[in-house]
Amino acid sequence: MENTHFCQSCGMPLTTEDAKGTENNGLKTNDYCRYCYEDSNFKNPDMNLEEMKDAVKMHMEKKKLPAYMVQKALNILPALKRWKNKQFVI
């Protein structure tokens, strides 16, 4: 079974090459999705963890995903690469 990569910003599964973001050399990255990352930069560089939680929740609820799935996704966000070391910054 192949390991699925997840966006280290929003948690979206990166199951296709099209879903992956890009580095500035045009290569796809296994770390971030195309909605969060393009040309080696975050599309919303000033976004904080709480804003990402709101965006993920809104997107998942729009897709009518079950509440337990939404909550699980929100619980995972603080452990992702983008947010892991920023959650205690004052």
Automatic annotation (TrEMBL):
- Taxonomic superkingdom: Bacteria
Where's the Putative zinc ribbon domain? 6-84
Q: What protein name does the entry list? A: Putative zinc ribbon protein
Which InterPro entries does the protein's record reference? Zn_ribbon_dom_put
* Pfam families per the UniProt record, alphabetical: Zn_ribbon_2
